[in-house]
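User: Design a sequence. Structure:
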């Protein structure tokens, strides 16, 4: 039985299109020169998770089964770890070189609600799935990776209904700020992992994180309900994120979808994002550390759909390492708070160059269709934020071309804060933006070059 299932899995893998080999189609008719990211090289070896003691009953903890399966593939030089249909409850999963984590249809990897499973010896929390300093790593298939984020995230009373508020309290938890916040601290069924709710809040981590990796692919899967950000390549090279669905509740704190950090040679294409914070976001670190880690560069964002998010496509707030050579083409934003969002502040800013944004369709944008924020203050839940006490690392949004934007029903068309040194050499061409409240709110002395731009209202 196990042999026949393995043969079937191998046949299904063989029937899949070449991973990365067909992505050249996204690189046609680009406004700048970019290269298709190199695909991970994965040997043909395959193992089934169930052959290593894994049980897909949603109750059995499979952390050790994942560890053993990865170790077995590593000894073979890599291969495909096949996760069959079922619910595979687990703690952290650590991937190694030349390994593909492949989820079959109706397979769900569910992170344990017991936060103790994720606390490392150094006291920090491990991501759900991680790879560090690895080459040729992929996550593929038709299954779901669920972070069980409600067991980690604080909840703002003003963002939930009475029914939802009661549901959270059925879990136990702790009210704070005169009842305006709920924390998953002192829960009924699971112990705390910190001395107080604020310290535990700071332990929240990402669902999938790749750090210092080369040749990374995430394809086909659904990634949902992270404790914090969902997919985070950090200081990586040659990354493809294609045909992925990323989703979480609209009110999930820090529920970013796809965040690139100091990462280069990237394709994000044909993804669907519906999240609680920024949708597709580019970051490049804050201050001197961001400069050391290098820029985000040579990036193609094409053919994606973003539903709820704080911003459909976002740069910032930290990008001291710089952002350059980026094409954002043929994307749809429907129901986002803002459409194109550029945000930063002193101490965390950098310089952009060679940014080309074309053919963006937007509808039902709650605030601005296009916004530049140069005094952005990052505020953690339950705390008050402030700008850094420095004049270094000022944001400079420049050398940006935005064309063929069609937006229906934004509250504000274009908004710019800051002076001409922070926002300059920005061109808008052939855009139509229909606004319900304010056509333009641009700071004095800031000059935007506009050619055939229609800002319309009631």
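Assistant: Done.
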């Amino acid at each position: 039985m196990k042999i026949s299932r393995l043969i079937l899995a191998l046949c299904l893998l063989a029937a899949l299109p070449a991973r990365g080999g067909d992505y050249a189609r996204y690189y046609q008719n680009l406004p700048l020169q970019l290269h298709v990211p190199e695909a991970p090289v994965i040997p043909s070896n395959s193992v089934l998770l169930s052959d290593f003691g894994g049980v897909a009953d949603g109750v059995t903890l499979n952390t050790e089964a994942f560890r053993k399966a990865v170790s077995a593939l590593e000894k073979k030089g890599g291969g495909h770890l096949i996760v069959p249909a079922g619910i595979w409850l687990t703690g952290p999963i650590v991937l190694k070189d030349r390994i593909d984590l492949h989820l079959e249809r109706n397979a769900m990897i569910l992170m344990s609600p017991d936060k103790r499973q994720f606390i490392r010896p150094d006291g920090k929390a491990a991501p759900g799935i991680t790879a560090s300093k690895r080459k040729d790593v992929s996550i593929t298939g038709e299954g779901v990776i669920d972070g069980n984020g409600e067991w980690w995230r604080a909840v703002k009373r003003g963002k939930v209904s009475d029914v939802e508020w009661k549901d959270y309290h059925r879990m136990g938890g702790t009210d704070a700020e005169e009842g305006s916040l709920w924390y998953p601290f002192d829960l009924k069924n699971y112990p705390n992992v910190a001395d107080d709710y604020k310290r535990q809040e700071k332990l929240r981590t990402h669902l999938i994180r790749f750090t210092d990796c080369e040749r990374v692919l995430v394809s086909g899967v659904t990634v949902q309900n992270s404790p914090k950000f969902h997919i985070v390549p950090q200081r990586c090279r040659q990354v493809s994120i294609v045909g992925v669905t990323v989703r979480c509740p609209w009110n999930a704190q820090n529920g970013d979808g796809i965040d690139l950090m100091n990462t280069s040679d990237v394709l994000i294409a044909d993804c669907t994002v519906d999240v609680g914070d920024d949708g597709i976001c580019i970051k490049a670190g804050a201050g001197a550390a961001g400069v050391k880690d290098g820029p985000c560069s040579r990036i193609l964002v094409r053919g994606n759909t973003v539903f709820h998010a704080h911003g459909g496509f976002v740069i910032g707030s930290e990008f001291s390492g710089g952002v350059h050579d980026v094409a954002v083409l043929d994307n749809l934003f429907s129901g986002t708070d803002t459409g194109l969002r550029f945000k930063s502040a002193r101490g965390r800013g950098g310089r952009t160059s060679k940014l080309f944004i074309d053919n963006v369709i937007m509808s039902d944008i709650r605030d601005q269709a296009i916004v530049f924020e140069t005094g952005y203050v990052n505020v953690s839940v339950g705390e008050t934020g402030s700008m850094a006490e420095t004049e270094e690392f000022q944001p400079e949004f420049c050398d940006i071309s935005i064309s063929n934007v069609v937006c229906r029903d934004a509250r504000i068309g274009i908004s710019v804060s800051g002076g001409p040194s922070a926002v300059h050499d920005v061109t808008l061409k052939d855009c139509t933006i229909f606004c319900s409240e304010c056509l333009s709110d641009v700071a004095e002395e800031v000059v935007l070059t506009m050619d055939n731009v229609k800002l319309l209202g009631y």
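The domain at 43-146+208-457 is CATH 2.160.20.10 (Pectate Lyase C-like). The chain has two domains: 43-146+208-457, 154-203.
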